[in-house]
TrEMBL record:
This is Phenylalanine--tRNA ligase alpha subunit. It comes from Candidatus Spechtbacteria bacterium SB0662_bin_43. One of its GO terms (cellular component) is cytoplasm. Residues 61-88 form a coiled coil. The gene is pheS. Transmembrane segments: none annotated.
Amino acid sequence: MDNELEQIKTQAISEIQGSTTYHELDTVFRSYLGRKGRVTLQLRALSGMPIEERKTRGSLLNGLKENIEKAAQEKRSALETNKNKEEGAAWIDITRPGTPLQKGSVHPLTRVGWEIEDIFVAMGFDVSDGPHVETEYYNFEALNIPANHPARDLWDTFWLKPKNAGYVLRTHTSPMQIRYMEKHQPPLRLIVPGRVFRYEATDQSHHFQFNQVEGLMVGTDVSVAHFRAVIGEFFEKFFGTRVETRLRPGFFPFVEPGFEVDMRRQGTGWLEMAGAGMVHPNVLKVVGYDPQKVSGFAFGMGWDRLAMMKYHIDDVRLFQEGDIRFLKQFV
Ligand code: FA5
């Protein structure tokens, strides 16, 4: 093969092997052996040549043509194999069962919160919420706990800086008693579910941030008997059975008399569930009510403790650790 044909062969084979798609391969192939391809034109030119030259050159050109066709055929097969491989990798068996999606669930404390609200709403209670950052006035003073009163030590408080600005993370939901009474007139029935914060060490039944439900009922002749009836009805509905409760005397500056409410379920000891009492006359006066005409009861219940009792959880900290193995039980 003369030099020129040798060059065409090398170039054609290299271009053919470098093709990455059928389309590219076809274009290369046609540039040599298509109707106006380089080799085709040379084949056509043979007819004008003297017979001897035509023979020699014709055989060389036909050899070249065969080489190009062979190389193109091989490349076509190679592309075919790759295509099958790629398609094989992307192939999806739509009849295969899928991986089930992980199902989320409502956090047990949220669920308990909803249940608490439903039960009290059914008894005619209004539901309200208040700020987590509270003023000293609402968290303490208006609740009959003046500055420097030893009762302030009952609640270990997170003070916001600077301390003399008088802002705290509310230590209980009781400030909402004041805020609500300032805006409403008796008779009233209210619950306030919400988060509270205390600067204290944690243990099985104590957390530094937990949830309470405040309850307040004010009207004419509201008495401890009303409180017992309401709280008894609540426990029965919440636990779906009668539960044993007891009232112990307890001190809270904003009630008089005050008591602690304990409850016991089969197989468990007594657990303090709530602080409660008859609203102190000073508190009624602060919001402009006349203690001679109206009376009321108030309570502050540990919502996390209700969840502990309901689901037989022996450590309150589990509710806040976000451990998926624990939370999965409540799906
Ligand atoms: C109070 O916070 C009063 N505000 C309750 C009250 C309201 C009394 C209205 C009278 C009238 P006490 O600090 O005891 O009280 O908390 C109330 C309830 O919250 C407790 O009975 C308990 O169930 C729950 N509790 C208290 N401390 C924690 C804590 N660290 N972790 C989880 N639950 C707690």
